[in-house]
Amino acid sequence: MEKSKDSYSIWIKIVSVVIPIVVALLFTVKIEYSLPIFLPPIYSSINALTALLLVLALIAIKNKKIKLHENLMKICIGLSLVFLIMYIAYHITSTSTIFGDVNKDGIRDASEKAEIGRELYVYAFILISHIILSIALIPMVLTSYVRAIQKQFDPHKRIGKITLPIWLYVTITGVIVYIMISPYY
User: Fold this and answer.
1) How confident is the model at residue 4 (pLDDT cuts 50, 70, 90)?
2) HEC profile for the chain?
3) 27 DSSP 8-state letter
4) Which whole-number Å values give the CA distances from 146 to 32, 93, 97, 141, 157, in the listed order?
5) For the chain, what is the mean pLDDT?
6) Is 69:60 a contact under the CB 8 Å cutoff?
7) Which residue of 28, 33, 83, 129 is most buried, as measured by CB atoms within 10 A?
């Protein structure tokens, strides 16, 4: 059992480092391809659905519906993976949208900055905290999941109490970021 725990621990560390590095590197890649659909509202909806399912999973476990909780959490992990794939696909095939770029020329000039005012700082805070916590969330979700499948429910519960609010914050702020930047697409 201990060897298995160590093996999972190593893989969690590797995955937790590799995913953010790969995502960051992929931001430098641009593929000239027009996606058949506009992904941001879709992956924003995935974030909203994930947030809802996380709350339902919490309610399920509080009501001792363990199998329902397990299934909902697996769906949340799957949705997070689908989100990540769509997010990467969009960003490697599209130019980045600039918050506050009212005329959509790819530049936020002084007049546009004045027009959006402090909203830029609110947006920046939400976006930066969302990104940082989404990176921190990777090992937390993986560790919590591994503890559950190993039937180590006390450690699972301890990490879950920290992971859940952060995961909710990340999914909800993902929707907020989309709503705030959507006028500038």
Assistant:
1) low
2) CHHHHHHHHHHHHHHHHHHHHHHHHHCCCCCCCCCCCCCHHHHHHHHHHHHHHHHHHHHHHHCCCHHHHHHHHHHHHHHHHHHHHHHHHHHHHCCCCCCCCCCCCCCCCHHHHHHHCCHHHHHHHHHHHHHHHHHHHHHHHHHHHHHHHCCCHHHHHHHHHHHHHHHHHHHHHHHHHHHHHHHHC
3) T
4) 39, 34, 37, 9, 12
5) 95
6) yes
7) 83
pLDDT tens track for 50-103:
999 999 999 999 999 999 999 999 999 999 999 999 999 999 999 989 999 999
At 1, the pLDDT band (50, 70, 90 cuts) reads very low
The answer to whether 12 and 142 have CB atoms below 8 angstroms apart is: yes
The label of the residue with tokens 């519906």 reads: 65
Regarding predicted confidence, which is higher, 142 or 6? 142
**Tokens linked to 145:** 């999941």
